[in-house]
Design goal:
The protein has 484 residues and is α+β, with helices and mostly antiparallel strands. It folds into 3 domains: 116 residues, NTF2-like, domain 1 (Nuclear Transport Factor 2, Chain: A, Roll), CATH 3.10.450.100; 110 residues, Zincin-like (2-Layer Sandwich), CATH 3.30.2010.30; 130 residues, no CATH class. 39% of the residues lie in helices and 17% in strands. The protein contains 15 helices and 12 strands. Strands 3, 4, 5, 6 and 7 form a 5-stranded antiparallel β-sheet that branches. Strands 8-9-10-12-11 form a 5-stranded mixed β-sheet, sandwiched between helices. A hairpin with a 2-residue loop joins β6 and β7. The radius of gyration is 28 Å and the shape is elongated. The two termini are 24 Å apart.
Length: 484
Protein backbone atom coordinates (compact mmCIF):
# COMPACT_ATOMS: atom_id res chain seq x y z
CA UNK A 1 0.00 0.00 0.00
CA UNK A 2 1.29 3.41 -0.94
CA UNK A 3 0.89 6.78 0.80
CA UNK A 4 0.24 9.63 -1.65
CA UNK A 5 3.42 11.68 -1.43
CA UNK A 6 3.97 14.56 -3.84
CA UNK A 7 6.74 13.66 -6.35
CA UNK A 8 9.37 15.88 -7.90
CA UNK A 9 8.34 17.77 -11.03
CA UNK A 10 10.18 15.31 -13.25
CA UNK A 11 10.79 11.68 -12.43
CA UNK A 12 12.84 9.91 -15.10
CA UNK A 13 12.79 6.20 -15.52
CA UNK A 14 15.70 4.84 -13.48
CA UNK A 15 18.71 4.47 -15.77
CA UNK A 16 21.10 1.58 -15.59
CA UNK A 17 23.98 2.45 -13.31
CA UNK A 18 25.70 1.68 -10.02
CA UNK A 19 24.36 2.28 -6.57
CA UNK A 20 26.10 4.69 -4.25
CA UNK A 21 29.44 3.40 -3.01
CA UNK A 22 29.84 1.88 0.42
CA UNK A 23 30.21 4.29 3.29
CA UNK A 24 33.67 4.54 4.84
CA UNK A 25 34.10 2.48 7.96
CA UNK A 26 31.55 -0.18 6.97
CA UNK A 27 32.70 -3.45 5.49
CA UNK A 28 31.06 -3.78 2.10
CA UNK A 29 30.92 -6.88 -0.02
CA UNK A 30 31.73 -6.35 -3.70
CA UNK A 31 28.70 -5.99 -5.93
CA UNK A 32 29.24 -7.84 -9.18
CA UNK A 33 25.82 -6.99 -10.60
CA UNK A 34 24.04 -4.12 -8.85
CA UNK A 35 20.82 -4.45 -10.85
CA UNK A 36 18.50 -7.43 -10.70
CA UNK A 37 18.43 -9.82 -13.59
CA UNK A 38 15.04 -10.58 -15.13
CA UNK A 39 13.36 -13.93 -14.67
CA UNK A 40 11.14 -15.60 -17.28
CA UNK A 41 7.60 -14.27 -17.36
CA UNK A 42 5.10 -16.66 -15.91
CA UNK A 43 7.68 -18.82 -14.13
CA UNK A 44 5.69 -21.69 -12.55
CA UNK A 45 5.51 -20.85 -8.88
CA UNK A 46 4.07 -22.47 -5.79
CA UNK A 47 0.53 -21.22 -6.39
CA UNK A 48 -0.11 -23.97 -8.82
CA UNK A 49 1.09 -22.92 -12.26
CA UNK A 50 -0.62 -24.89 -15.02
CA UNK A 51 0.68 -28.31 -15.90
CA UNK A 52 -0.97 -30.93 -18.09
CA UNK A 53 -2.87 -33.53 -16.08
CA UNK A 54 -1.12 -36.80 -15.38
CA UNK A 55 -2.21 -39.63 -17.68
CA UNK A 56 -4.89 -41.85 -16.27
CA UNK A 57 -3.64 -45.21 -14.96
CA UNK A 58 -4.00 -48.05 -17.38
CA UNK A 59 -6.84 -50.40 -16.47
CA UNK A 60 -6.09 -54.12 -16.59
CA UNK A 61 -9.08 -56.23 -17.67
CA UNK A 62 -9.49 -59.91 -17.08
CA UNK A 63 -10.61 -62.29 -19.81
CA UNK A 64 -13.96 -62.77 -18.12
CA UNK A 65 -14.45 -59.04 -17.98
CA UNK A 66 -13.85 -58.66 -21.71
CA UNK A 67 -16.32 -61.47 -22.45
CA UNK A 68 -19.05 -59.68 -20.53
CA UNK A 69 -18.22 -56.43 -22.31
CA UNK A 70 -18.52 -58.04 -25.72
CA UNK A 71 -21.82 -59.69 -24.84
CA UNK A 72 -23.19 -56.43 -23.51
CA UNK A 73 -22.23 -54.52 -26.64
CA UNK A 74 -23.87 -57.15 -28.83
CA UNK A 75 -27.02 -56.90 -26.79
CA UNK A 76 -27.06 -53.13 -27.21
CA UNK A 77 -26.60 -53.34 -30.95
CA UNK A 78 -29.29 -56.00 -31.22
CA UNK A 79 -31.76 -53.82 -29.40
CA UNK A 80 -31.02 -50.86 -31.68
CA UNK A 81 -29.97 -48.62 -28.78
CA UNK A 82 -27.26 -46.00 -29.34
CA UNK A 83 -25.59 -43.53 -27.02
CA UNK A 84 -25.71 -45.61 -23.81
CA UNK A 85 -23.44 -48.49 -22.90
CA UNK A 86 -23.63 -50.61 -19.76
CA UNK A 87 -20.97 -53.15 -18.99
CA UNK A 88 -19.05 -54.89 -16.27
CA UNK A 89 -15.54 -53.49 -16.41
CA UNK A 90 -13.73 -55.89 -14.13
CA UNK A 91 -14.76 -59.41 -13.24
CA UNK A 92 -16.69 -59.46 -10.02
CA UNK A 93 -17.53 -55.70 -9.96
CA UNK A 94 -20.23 -53.74 -11.73
CA UNK A 95 -19.76 -50.42 -13.52
CA UNK A 96 -22.20 -48.47 -15.68
CA UNK A 97 -20.99 -46.05 -18.33
CA UNK A 98 -23.19 -43.28 -19.72
CA UNK A 99 -22.81 -40.67 -22.40
CA UNK A 100 -23.06 -37.00 -21.48
CA UNK A 101 -26.46 -36.86 -23.15
CA UNK A 102 -27.66 -39.70 -20.94
CA UNK A 103 -26.32 -38.04 -17.78
CA UNK A 104 -28.11 -34.81 -18.69
CA UNK A 105 -31.37 -36.44 -19.75
CA UNK A 106 -34.33 -35.22 -17.73
CA UNK A 107 -35.50 -37.49 -14.92
CA UNK A 108 -39.03 -38.79 -15.02
CA UNK A 109 -41.58 -36.24 -13.92
CA UNK A 110 -42.40 -38.31 -10.84
CA UNK A 111 -38.75 -39.02 -9.98
CA UNK A 112 -37.74 -38.42 -6.34
CA UNK A 113 -36.52 -34.95 -5.37
CA UNK A 114 -33.02 -36.33 -4.78
CA UNK A 115 -32.89 -37.53 -8.38
CA UNK A 116 -33.92 -34.11 -9.68
CA UNK A 117 -31.42 -32.35 -7.42
CA UNK A 118 -28.59 -34.59 -8.64
CA UNK A 119 -29.62 -33.90 -12.24
CA UNK A 120 -29.64 -30.15 -11.60
CA UNK A 121 -26.09 -30.26 -10.30
CA UNK A 122 -24.89 -32.26 -13.32
CA UNK A 123 -26.68 -29.92 -15.73
CA UNK A 124 -25.26 -26.82 -13.98
CA UNK A 125 -21.77 -28.33 -14.07
CA UNK A 126 -22.12 -28.86 -17.80
CA UNK A 127 -23.44 -25.35 -18.42
CA UNK A 128 -20.77 -23.70 -16.27
CA UNK A 129 -17.98 -25.62 -17.96
CA UNK A 130 -19.22 -24.58 -21.39
CA UNK A 131 -19.56 -20.98 -20.24
CA UNK A 132 -15.98 -20.90 -18.97
CA UNK A 133 -14.68 -22.31 -22.24
CA UNK A 134 -16.70 -19.77 -24.21
CA UNK A 135 -15.11 -16.92 -22.25
CA UNK A 136 -11.62 -18.19 -22.99
CA UNK A 137 -12.57 -18.70 -26.65
CA UNK A 138 -14.05 -15.20 -26.97
CA UNK A 139 -17.47 -16.67 -27.79
CA UNK A 140 -20.13 -14.33 -26.40
CA UNK A 141 -23.09 -16.39 -27.62
CA UNK A 142 -21.65 -19.47 -25.95
CA UNK A 143 -21.04 -17.51 -22.74
CA UNK A 144 -24.67 -16.33 -22.66
CA UNK A 145 -26.13 -19.74 -23.54
CA UNK A 146 -26.35 -20.73 -19.87
CA UNK A 147 -28.45 -17.66 -18.96
CA UNK A 148 -32.24 -17.64 -18.74
CA UNK A 149 -33.41 -15.92 -21.97
CA UNK A 150 -36.18 -14.21 -19.98
CA UNK A 151 -33.82 -12.81 -17.30
CA UNK A 152 -33.22 -9.47 -19.00
CA UNK A 153 -31.26 -7.91 -16.12
CA UNK A 154 -28.95 -10.89 -15.83
CA UNK A 155 -28.44 -11.07 -19.59
CA UNK A 156 -27.43 -7.40 -19.67
CA UNK A 157 -25.01 -7.94 -16.80
CA UNK A 158 -23.48 -11.03 -18.35
CA UNK A 159 -22.94 -9.23 -21.65
CA UNK A 160 -21.15 -6.46 -19.78
CA UNK A 161 -19.15 -8.97 -17.81
CA UNK A 162 -18.14 -10.97 -20.89
CA UNK A 163 -16.92 -7.87 -22.68
CA UNK A 164 -14.89 -6.64 -19.71
CA UNK A 165 -13.41 -10.01 -18.79
CA UNK A 166 -12.49 -10.73 -22.39
CA UNK A 167 -10.57 -7.45 -22.57
CA UNK A 168 -8.85 -8.04 -19.21
CA UNK A 169 -7.50 -11.29 -20.65
CA UNK A 170 -8.18 -14.28 -18.42
CA UNK A 171 -5.40 -16.82 -18.71
CA UNK A 172 -7.38 -19.42 -16.82
CA UNK A 173 -11.06 -19.47 -16.00
CA UNK A 174 -12.56 -22.63 -14.53
CA UNK A 175 -16.13 -22.99 -13.29
CA UNK A 176 -17.90 -25.88 -11.60
CA UNK A 177 -20.52 -26.52 -8.98
CA UNK A 178 -19.51 -26.57 -5.34
CA UNK A 179 -21.79 -28.76 -3.21
CA UNK A 180 -25.26 -30.09 -3.79
CA UNK A 181 -28.09 -28.37 -5.61
CA UNK A 182 -30.74 -27.09 -3.18
CA UNK A 183 -34.34 -26.94 -4.32
CA UNK A 184 -35.86 -23.46 -3.79
CA UNK A 185 -39.09 -24.01 -5.73
CA UNK A 186 -40.72 -26.22 -8.29
CA UNK A 187 -37.90 -27.14 -10.68
CA UNK A 188 -35.78 -24.28 -9.27
CA UNK A 189 -32.43 -24.66 -7.52
CA UNK A 190 -29.73 -22.70 -5.73
CA UNK A 191 -26.22 -23.92 -6.51
CA UNK A 192 -22.83 -22.60 -5.45
CA UNK A 193 -20.46 -21.89 -8.34
CA UNK A 194 -16.76 -22.43 -7.67
CA UNK A 195 -14.65 -20.12 -9.81
CA UNK A 196 -10.88 -20.45 -10.16
CA UNK A 197 -9.46 -17.65 -12.27
CA UNK A 198 -6.50 -15.43 -13.04
CA UNK A 199 -5.57 -12.88 -15.67
CA UNK A 200 -2.50 -13.30 -17.86
CA UNK A 201 -1.41 -16.44 -19.70
CA UNK A 202 -1.98 -20.09 -18.84
CA UNK A 203 0.81 -20.02 -16.26
CA UNK A 204 -0.98 -17.41 -14.10
CA UNK A 205 -1.63 -18.41 -10.49
CA UNK A 206 -5.33 -18.83 -9.84
CA UNK A 207 -7.39 -17.66 -6.90
CA UNK A 208 -10.76 -19.08 -5.91
CA UNK A 209 -14.20 -17.59 -5.37
CA UNK A 210 -17.46 -19.33 -4.42
CA UNK A 211 -20.53 -17.57 -5.83
CA UNK A 212 -24.20 -18.31 -5.25
CA UNK A 213 -26.30 -18.90 -8.38
CA UNK A 214 -29.99 -19.67 -9.03
CA UNK A 215 -31.28 -21.91 -11.81
CA UNK A 216 -34.58 -23.15 -13.22
CA UNK A 217 -35.86 -25.70 -15.68
CA UNK A 218 -36.78 -24.05 -18.98
CA UNK A 219 -38.14 -26.19 -21.83
CA UNK A 220 -36.04 -29.18 -20.87
CA UNK A 221 -32.88 -27.22 -20.12
CA UNK A 222 -31.40 -25.79 -16.94
CA UNK A 223 -30.78 -22.02 -17.18
CA UNK A 224 -29.23 -19.52 -14.78
CA UNK A 225 -31.66 -16.94 -13.37
CA UNK A 226 -29.45 -15.08 -10.87
CA UNK A 227 -25.80 -14.62 -9.96
CA UNK A 228 -24.66 -13.08 -6.68
CA UNK A 229 -21.50 -11.02 -6.18
CA UNK A 230 -18.85 -11.93 -3.65
CA UNK A 231 -18.57 -10.01 -0.40
CA UNK A 232 -15.74 -8.91 1.87
CA UNK A 233 -15.24 -12.40 3.24
CA UNK A 234 -13.82 -13.32 -0.17
CA UNK A 235 -12.21 -9.93 -0.82
CA UNK A 236 -15.14 -9.00 -2.99
CA UNK A 237 -16.70 -7.62 -4.90
CA UNK A 238 -14.04 -7.75 -7.57
CA UNK A 239 -14.12 -4.76 -9.95
CA UNK A 240 -15.50 -6.87 -12.78
CA UNK A 241 -18.41 -7.99 -10.55
CA UNK A 242 -19.71 -4.54 -9.62
CA UNK A 243 -21.55 -3.60 -12.81
CA UNK A 244 -19.16 -0.70 -13.21
CA UNK A 245 -18.68 0.56 -16.74
CA UNK A 246 -14.95 0.09 -17.12
CA UNK A 247 -12.83 0.72 -20.19
CA UNK A 248 -9.65 -1.21 -20.83
CA UNK A 249 -6.28 -0.57 -22.46
CA UNK A 250 -3.33 -2.96 -22.54
CA UNK A 251 0.40 -3.02 -23.11
CA UNK A 252 2.80 -5.95 -23.39
CA UNK A 253 3.06 -6.54 -19.63
CA UNK A 254 0.13 -4.64 -18.18
CA UNK A 255 -3.58 -4.11 -18.63
CA UNK A 256 -5.38 -1.10 -17.14
CA UNK A 257 -9.12 -0.81 -16.49
CA UNK A 258 -10.76 2.44 -15.43
CA UNK A 259 -14.20 4.07 -15.21
CA UNK A 260 -15.09 5.60 -18.56
CA UNK A 261 -14.72 9.17 -17.27
CA UNK A 262 -10.97 8.53 -17.00
CA UNK A 263 -10.57 7.54 -20.64
CA UNK A 264 -8.20 10.46 -21.28
CA UNK A 265 -5.77 9.04 -18.74
CA UNK A 266 -5.58 5.48 -20.03
CA UNK A 267 -2.81 5.99 -22.57
CA UNK A 268 -0.50 7.65 -20.06
CA UNK A 269 -1.30 5.09 -17.36
CA UNK A 270 -0.52 2.12 -19.62
CA UNK A 271 2.74 3.67 -20.82
CA UNK A 272 3.80 4.39 -17.24
CA UNK A 273 2.72 0.95 -16.08
CA UNK A 274 4.85 -0.70 -18.75
CA UNK A 275 7.96 1.08 -17.44
CA UNK A 276 7.04 0.22 -13.86
CA UNK A 277 6.55 -3.44 -14.83
CA UNK A 278 10.10 -3.64 -16.17
CA UNK A 279 11.45 -2.76 -12.73
CA UNK A 280 9.01 -5.02 -10.87
CA UNK A 281 9.74 -7.95 -13.20
CA UNK A 282 13.44 -7.81 -12.42
CA UNK A 283 12.80 -7.98 -8.67
CA UNK A 284 10.41 -10.95 -8.84
CA UNK A 285 12.90 -13.67 -7.93
CA UNK A 286 10.83 -16.05 -5.79
CA UNK A 287 7.52 -17.14 -7.29
CA UNK A 288 8.27 -15.39 -10.56
CA UNK A 289 6.78 -12.14 -11.81
CA UNK A 290 3.13 -12.42 -12.89
CA UNK A 291 2.54 -13.16 -16.56
CA UNK A 292 0.66 -9.86 -16.66
CA UNK A 293 -0.10 -7.08 -14.18
CA UNK A 294 -3.74 -5.98 -13.92
CA UNK A 295 -4.31 -2.41 -12.72
CA UNK A 296 -7.69 -1.00 -11.78
CA UNK A 297 -7.91 2.80 -11.64
CA UNK A 298 -10.52 3.49 -8.97
CA UNK A 299 -12.87 6.42 -8.57
CA UNK A 300 -13.53 7.70 -5.06
CA UNK A 301 -16.63 5.49 -4.80
CA UNK A 302 -14.94 2.39 -6.24
CA UNK A 303 -11.97 2.92 -3.94
CA UNK A 304 -14.20 2.36 -0.90
CA UNK A 305 -15.93 -0.78 -2.16
CA UNK A 306 -13.70 -2.88 -4.40
CA UNK A 307 -12.14 -5.96 -2.81
CA UNK A 308 -14.19 -5.53 0.36
CA UNK A 309 -11.98 -2.88 1.84
CA UNK A 310 -11.89 0.82 2.59
CA UNK A 311 -8.23 1.83 2.49
CA UNK A 312 -6.90 4.38 4.97
CA UNK A 313 -7.17 8.03 3.99
CA UNK A 314 -3.40 8.25 3.51
CA UNK A 315 -3.29 5.40 1.01
CA UNK A 316 -3.06 5.89 -2.75
CA UNK A 317 -2.89 2.29 -3.94
CA UNK A 318 -2.87 -1.32 -2.86
CA UNK A 319 -1.92 -4.75 -4.13
CA UNK A 320 -4.54 -7.42 -3.48
CA UNK A 321 -2.50 -10.20 -1.88
CA UNK A 322 -5.31 -12.73 -2.37
CA UNK A 323 -4.77 -12.49 -6.13
CA UNK A 324 -1.80 -13.17 -8.32
CA UNK A 325 -1.48 -9.78 -9.99
CA UNK A 326 -4.35 -7.37 -9.28
CA UNK A 327 -3.57 -3.82 -8.18
CA UNK A 328 -5.83 -0.86 -7.41
CA UNK A 329 -4.76 2.79 -7.54
CA UNK A 330 -6.83 5.77 -6.49
CA UNK A 331 -7.48 7.95 -9.51
CA UNK A 332 -7.65 11.03 -7.29
CA UNK A 333 -4.14 10.38 -5.97
CA UNK A 334 -2.41 9.62 -9.26
CA UNK A 335 -2.42 12.93 -11.09
CA UNK A 336 1.23 13.21 -9.99
CA UNK A 337 3.72 10.59 -8.90
CA UNK A 338 2.13 7.92 -11.08
CA UNK A 339 5.39 6.17 -11.92
CA UNK A 340 6.42 5.81 -8.28
CA UNK A 341 2.97 4.59 -7.29
CA UNK A 342 2.72 1.97 -10.03
CA UNK A 343 6.29 0.79 -9.51
CA UNK A 344 5.56 0.40 -5.80
CA UNK A 345 2.38 -1.65 -6.29
CA UNK A 346 3.65 -3.81 -9.16
CA UNK A 347 6.75 -4.59 -7.11
CA UNK A 348 4.45 -5.94 -4.40
CA UNK A 349 2.92 -8.26 -6.98
CA UNK A 350 6.28 -9.51 -8.24
CA UNK A 351 8.15 -9.83 -4.93
CA UNK A 352 5.33 -11.32 -2.87
CA UNK A 353 4.68 -14.09 -5.39
CA UNK A 354 5.69 -17.26 -3.64
CA UNK A 355 5.18 -19.10 -0.35
CA UNK A 356 5.49 -16.02 1.94
CA UNK A 357 6.28 -18.09 5.03
CA UNK A 358 7.38 -14.93 6.80
CA UNK A 359 4.37 -12.87 5.76
CA UNK A 360 1.35 -15.09 6.27
CA UNK A 361 -0.34 -14.31 9.55
CA UNK A 362 -1.16 -10.99 11.17
CA UNK A 363 1.84 -11.04 13.48
CA UNK A 364 4.30 -11.71 10.64
CA UNK A 365 2.70 -9.04 8.48
CA UNK A 366 3.13 -6.49 11.23
CA UNK A 367 6.69 -7.51 12.09
CA UNK A 368 7.87 -7.67 8.49
CA UNK A 369 5.77 -4.83 7.11
CA UNK A 370 8.90 -2.72 6.75
CA UNK A 371 10.42 -5.25 4.34
CA UNK A 372 7.25 -5.57 2.23
CA UNK A 373 6.82 -1.82 1.88
CA UNK A 374 10.51 -1.00 1.95
CA UNK A 375 11.34 -3.01 -1.15
CA UNK A 376 8.33 -1.58 -3.00
CA UNK A 377 9.44 2.03 -2.40
CA UNK A 378 13.06 1.01 -2.95
CA UNK A 379 12.18 -0.22 -6.46
CA UNK A 380 11.19 3.31 -7.50
CA UNK A 381 14.45 4.67 -6.07
CA UNK A 382 16.76 2.38 -8.06
CA UNK A 383 19.30 4.43 -9.97
CA UNK A 384 18.34 7.65 -8.19
CA UNK A 385 20.10 9.56 -5.44
CA UNK A 386 18.59 9.23 -1.99
CA UNK A 387 18.27 13.01 -1.91
CA UNK A 388 15.63 12.76 -4.65
CA UNK A 389 13.38 10.64 -2.43
CA UNK A 390 10.15 12.55 -1.87
CA UNK A 391 9.65 11.47 1.74
CA UNK A 392 13.18 12.33 2.88
CA UNK A 393 12.23 15.55 4.77
CA UNK A 394 9.50 13.64 6.62
CA UNK A 395 11.92 10.82 7.45
CA UNK A 396 14.42 13.28 8.90
CA UNK A 397 11.78 14.81 11.13
CA UNK A 398 10.48 11.39 12.18
CA UNK A 399 13.87 9.91 13.20
CA UNK A 400 14.67 13.02 15.23
CA UNK A 401 11.39 12.64 17.09
CA UNK A 402 10.03 9.59 18.91
CA UNK A 403 11.59 6.95 16.66
CA UNK A 404 13.10 4.11 18.73
CA UNK A 405 15.97 3.50 16.28
CA UNK A 406 14.63 0.16 15.02
CA UNK A 407 14.76 -0.17 11.20
CA UNK A 408 11.90 -2.70 11.49
CA UNK A 409 9.46 0.17 11.90
CA UNK A 410 5.82 -0.60 12.71
CA UNK A 411 3.17 0.09 10.06
CA UNK A 412 1.14 3.28 10.35
CA UNK A 413 -2.34 2.85 11.82
CA UNK A 414 -5.27 3.55 9.54
CA UNK A 415 -5.89 6.72 11.52
CA UNK A 416 -2.37 8.08 10.92
CA UNK A 417 -1.95 11.38 9.14
CA UNK A 418 -0.15 11.55 5.82
CA UNK A 419 3.12 12.82 7.29
CA UNK A 420 3.38 9.98 9.80
CA UNK A 421 2.50 7.32 7.22
CA UNK A 422 4.95 8.69 4.65
CA UNK A 423 7.73 8.88 7.24
CA UNK A 424 7.30 5.23 8.24
CA UNK A 425 7.32 4.18 4.59
CA UNK A 426 10.45 6.27 4.19
CA UNK A 427 12.24 4.58 7.09
CA UNK A 428 11.37 1.20 5.58
CA UNK A 429 12.55 2.25 2.11
CA UNK A 430 15.83 3.79 3.21
CA UNK A 431 16.59 0.82 5.46
CA UNK A 432 16.29 -1.53 2.49
CA UNK A 433 18.26 0.89 0.33
CA UNK A 434 21.05 1.09 2.92
CA UNK A 435 21.38 -2.70 3.07
CA UNK A 436 21.57 -2.81 -0.74
CA UNK A 437 24.15 -0.03 -0.87
CA UNK A 438 26.41 -1.67 1.73
CA UNK A 439 26.08 -5.35 0.88
CA UNK A 440 24.91 -5.25 -2.73
CA UNK A 441 21.47 -5.61 -4.20
CA UNK A 442 21.77 -9.36 -4.75
CA UNK A 443 22.65 -9.90 -1.10
CA UNK A 444 19.82 -7.60 0.01
CA UNK A 445 17.34 -9.54 -2.11
CA UNK A 446 18.63 -12.83 -0.72
CA UNK A 447 18.16 -11.47 2.82
CA UNK A 448 14.69 -10.21 1.95
CA UNK A 449 13.64 -13.54 0.48
CA UNK A 450 14.94 -15.54 3.43
CA UNK A 451 12.77 -13.52 5.79
CA UNK A 452 9.66 -13.06 3.64
CA UNK A 453 9.54 -16.31 1.71
CA UNK A 454 11.51 -18.79 3.79
CA UNK A 455 10.33 -17.49 7.15
CA UNK A 456 13.78 -17.10 8.70
CA UNK A 457 14.41 -14.71 11.57
CA UNK A 458 16.19 -11.42 10.86
CA UNK A 459 19.25 -12.80 12.63
CA UNK A 460 19.43 -16.03 10.63
CA UNK A 461 18.65 -14.30 7.34
CA UNK A 462 21.25 -11.62 7.99
CA UNK A 463 23.97 -14.11 8.87
CA UNK A 464 23.27 -16.31 5.87
CA UNK A 465 22.68 -13.66 3.21
CA UNK A 466 24.72 -10.68 4.40
CA UNK A 467 27.51 -12.40 6.30
CA UNK A 468 26.90 -10.20 9.33
CA UNK A 469 24.74 -10.38 12.44
CA UNK A 470 21.45 -8.53 12.40
CA UNK A 471 22.64 -6.38 15.30
CA UNK A 472 25.56 -5.19 13.15
CA UNK A 473 23.38 -4.54 10.12
CA UNK A 474 20.65 -2.88 12.18
CA UNK A 475 23.11 -0.60 14.00
CA UNK A 476 24.56 0.60 10.72
CA UNK A 477 21.10 1.26 9.26
CA UNK A 478 20.08 3.19 12.37
CA UNK A 479 23.24 5.30 12.27
CA UNK A 480 22.67 5.98 8.57
CA UNK A 481 19.05 7.06 9.05
CA UNK A 482 20.00 9.47 11.81
CA UNK A 483 22.44 11.33 9.57
CA UNK A 484 20.88 10.99 6.10
Amino acid sequence: MTPPVAPPASTPYPPAGPYGSAVAGVSARPVASPYPQPVPYGYPGPYGAWRPPAPAPRIQHSGAGWLVVVLSVLAIVGAGITGIASAVAVAGTGATWHTRADALALPAADAPAATWNAWARRAADDALGKQAKALLDGDEAGFLAAVDPRADTLLTEMRRRFDLLHQLGPGRWEQQTDGAAKAIGSHEWRIDLRLDYCFGDVTCRMNRLVIETDWRLDEGHLVMTDLETTDGRQYGPRPWETRSRLIVAAGDRTVVAAPSRYDSRLTETVATAERAAAVADALGRWGGAPSRYVIFLASSDDWKTWYGTKPPDWSAGYYVRKTDNEVVVNALATTTGLWELLTHELTHASTLAGPRKGYDDEREQRENWWLAEGIADYAALIGRAVTSYDALPLVRRYVKGDWDGNPAVAPPPDSADLADAAARYGVACLSVRRIADVYGQDAMLAFWGKVMHEGLSLQDASTQALGASWSTVSADVTQYLRRV
